[in-house]
Amino acid sequence: MAPSGQDRRVIQLPIDPGLLCLRGLSPRRLRFEVEYGLERGTSANSFLFAAGANDAGQPMPPVLIHPPGASFAESFLAELGTLVPTDAALKVVVGHVNPNRVALLRQLASRWPALMLVASNAGARLLEELWNQQQPGSAPEGSPERLSPPLPAIDIVKQEACRQLAGGHRLCLLPVPTPRWPGALMAFEERTGLLMSGKFFAAHLCSESFAEANRDSTEEDRRYFYDCLMAPMARQVESVVDRLDDLPIRTIAPGHGPAIAESWRSLLADYRRWGAAQGRANLSVALLYASAYGNTAAIADALAQGVSRTGVRVESINCEFASAEQLLTTIRACDALLIGSPTLGGHAPTPIVSALGTVLAEGDRTKPVGVFGSFGWSGEAIDLLESKLRDGGFNFAFEPIRVKFSPDLATLRTLEETGTSLGRLLETERRRSQLRSSGGGLNESRSNPAIQALGRVVGSLCVLTARKGEGEQSQSGAMVASWVSQASFSPPGFTVAVAKDRSVETLLHVGDHFALNVLAAGREREPMKRFLRPFPPGADRFAGLETQTSPGGQPLLPEAVAWLEASVKQRMECGDHWVLYAQVQHGGLLDAKATTAVHQRRNGGSY
């Protein structure tokens, strides 16, 4: 559930004389977008350079870097008002442009009439497009919320540029466009070595400390943010990271989460390592979209998250800013293609219509496609995409996805599972193709003696069940688990391996709870049959099944021999699996006379 305005506040964190971090804090999940899925709250970091004189004695206005979105408007504007007089010629560096951010900028322009905006070339174009637009359903016609002040003057940063500020500070602005954030700007202050990196290196968690205690304390959160938003554009992200090597950085302060002061080089190395896994993928999905209000982009993010879990690379293309050559290359090289569009005034945006024409002219009809989009009052753009592609002879991987306004939590989960199903489909087709090309011979890896020996490592057959949240926002999942082992006596704990493409994996981050239902020998067939079969995206794994409930609210299977309720304490990435270490909190024997079902395998190349 999204927090109310009373849950949000803004604090001041001094960084250097004349430089403050204004951090908006929300202890609960702020929005339903996929990147907030760990539900550890969030923070929004802005940076204020005070007015004064530069080294040459010239007067310098106050400069605000990376203002937050409208979600923090009330408390942020109140705090800023105590620091900057409303008659000041405030300069605002807009490092990220979306409707939520523009909504706050309009309020800034109303309170500070001498406001000037600083943006990249693409950012300035987005500001001009969005300034007088209102998201459908956000406010009635004629209401004060619909009235916008004039768009302030925009200082356009076309390439890297440095500016003198008050108090001996010198600010360098770096355009870092990506498909998800074409107008992105980073800001680097030379004296302090502070990189204000915007969306890069961010993490959604609520923290009052300016910097993290150590890398381990936030690694899972930053990795999750990367997987949700950065992985679909890993190549562009790596190019941006490479540009940062030459900067004399001392601290990285992203737009969300605590700063990284002691180990920022290891974080850059992590970004490269995480992106390398995408580069090694044998298959790719092209994700083409445009997004007027961010809703279609949120759908794209969820689909990409699901596809990426299967080890399939996602190539994200923002059709509003991509070149014709880039679009054509991506369409020709992909193994599947997804295209999404908002509906604006009953039509698809012109860039989407152009991209559709390229797909129809150059797309491979043997490769699966998918259509998605958001709309306010109608969905003509989605209908257009579907009809043209069907008439063009393309095969659909799933039925067109239509989301009114923005996706809710249940819809996001269904979208992720839809992406995962597509990734699995592509992997299955690839394996079949390899089998056909080898003449149906034995898979070399499975005939390897070492792989055969690995298969003799046995484990107990279990069903892992998890439930998180309450009411309509409750999420649940289950999977058969056989890679299970006790790991500690004190405290009592065990490890369990979870494949990255399992939908229940999203419910198994550090701090989450789950139950392990240990199956009984001779009674394992029915629960295995149920939980091994593929479920359609969004399906309730427990529909029609009688379950009991653990003390912590986790589903228990009555036919199990025993159960354990545990909380995740650590996660370790192991190739195509996550290995979780969980500490036992509750447990019980349901049948003291039964023995544990054991999984016997012929080789270690599969389950």
What would your notes on this structure say?
With 607 residues, the chain is an alpha/beta fold. It has three domains: 5-277, Metallo-beta-lactamase, Chain A (4-Layer Sandwich), CATH 3.60.15; 281-425, Flavodoxin domain (Rossmann fold); 456-599, Pnp Oxidase, Chain A (Roll), CATH 2.30.110. The chain is 27% helix and 27% strand. It contains 13 helices and 30 strands. Strands 1-2-3-6-7-8-9 form a seven-stranded mixed sheet. A seven-stranded antiparallel sheet has the order 22-21-25-28-29-24-23, with helices on one face. Residues 140-144 have low confidence and may be disordered.
Please give the order of strands in the largest beta sheet. 1-2-3-6-7-8-9
| Helical run tally | 13
CATH fold assignment of the largest domain: Metallo-beta-lactamase, Chain A
Q: Quickly name the level 1 CATH class of the largest domain.
A: Alpha Beta
The major sheet is characterized as: 7 strands, mixed
CATH fourth-tier homologous superfamily of the largest domain: Ribonuclease Z/Hydroxyacylglutathione hydrolase-like
Helical amount among residues, as a percent range? 25-40%
- Judged by helices, strands and strand pairing, the structural class is alpha/beta
Average pLDDT score: 92
Spans of at least 5 consecutive residues whose pLDDT stays below 50 are 140-144
Architecture per CATH nomenclature, i.e. the level-2 architecture of the largest domain:
4-Layer Sandwich
User: How many beta-strand runs?
Assistant: 30
Looking at the structure, what is the overall shape? globular
